[in-house]
Amino acid sequence: MSTAKADFTGQVALIATMHGKQVAFAAPLIQLGFTVQTPEGFDTDRFGTFSGEVERSGDMLNAARAKARAAFLHSGKSADWVIASEGAFGPSRVVPMLAEARELVLAWRPADDHEVVVTRTSFETNFSHLDVTGETTDAELATWLERIGFPDHAIIVREGHTPVKKAHRSGFTLSWLASSFSGPIRLETDMRAHLNPTRMGEISILGSELAERLSYPCPTCAQPGFGLTGVERGLPCEACGTPTELVRQEIWSCGACDHSQSRSRSDSRTHASAGNCPICNP
Ligand SMILES: [Zn+2]
Ligand SMILES: [Zn+2]
Question: What is the tally of structural domains in the chain?
């Protein structure tokens, strides 16, 4: 496969964001040659806020598409590419005790509707809530605030079903809550990127992955965005050759044509340790 990287010099990448996410995307895109812009006065909050449910990635992709198209129109259709991102948070489907963060970033080229999408699922999130009742103690409140990374990470106060105060970063005590609100109170982590450094970190990782993906043209059709889209498991045990659950091959594919390749692992590992083997270490 060709190792020539794509060069986007002179092309404008518009980052469809109002929550400071350009910080996460700009540097890796500039390295590819892009001129990075953000749409002035663009309001992404009208695309909805976090429900606390883990959404299907198809829904996240459609939400990112809507955001990208709106930003493109808002900017006067001047960009070559539009970058939009979506996050969803909720209980993990693998380990339901843990909260899971799912992030999706879309790069869309309006001229030919070409899309490059990268996603990331991780446990790196402070997503959580605390219901404050008459039984709640100052110690419980303090423990929760510390666990979610307050005050570096902001929180939202919800009175009943309505978020009444947003982005709190100081002054949290039970007596303050009791004197400020009357109904049932729920404290929630604020998941907007500029108020949640943990989330911004995850988006930054994905921003670098997006740039990496964009930099590889498809060996068949030359469209940018050829990259890892799946894996085949079954890396053989070093002692007995039995297939293990570890990744044996990476599947790279193109979003524009149906070309795909099986590639050896990027770390060149050809065998699993016996500790991962269902026969040697049952
Ligand atoms: Zn074995
Ligand atoms: Zn292709």
Answer: 3
**Domain residue limits at 246:** 230-276
201 and 117: one domain?
Answer: yes
Same domain assignment for residues 20 and 50: yes
Q: How far apart (Å, rounded) are the C-alpha atoms in residues 169 and 151? A: 5
**pLDDT digit string (tens) for the chain, length 282 residues:** 445 678 899 999 999 876 677 778 889 999 999 999 988 877 665 555 554 445 556 788 998 999 999 999 998 888 999 999 999 998 888 888 899 999 999 999 999 999 999 999 999 999 999 998 888 888 999 999 999 999 899 888 888 766 665 666 666 778 778 777 777 888 889 888 888 999 999 999 999 999 999 999 999 999 999 998 889 999 999 999 999 999 999 999 998 999 999 999 888 999 999 999 999 988
Q: Ligand 1 centroid vs 273 CA: distance in angstroms?
A: 8
Cα(33) to ligand 2 centroid in Å equals 22
The letter for the amino acid at 260 is S
- Nearest ligand to the CA of 217 is 2
Q: CA 2: distance to chain centroid?
A: 29
Ligand nearest to the CA of 276: 1
Q: For residue 113, how far is its CA from the centre of ligand 2 (angstroms)?
A: 14
Residue 224: inside a domain, yes or no?
no
Domain membership flag for residue 221: no
Task: Tell me, in angstroms, the distance from the centre of ligand 2 to residue 171's CA.
Answer: 54
Ligand at shortest distance from the CA of 257: 2
Residue 172 is assigned to a structural domain of this protein: yes
Q: How far is the CA of 96 from the centre of ligand 2 (A)?
A: 38
Alpha helix (H) residue ranges in 105-166: 138-147
Longest Cα–Cα distance of the chain, Å, equals 68
CA of 30 to the centre of ligand 2 (A): 24
Q: Which residue has the tokens 């010099």?
A: 9
Instruction: Assess whether 99 and 207 both reside in one domain.
Output: yes
Rg of the chain over Cα atoms, rounded to whole angstroms, equals 22
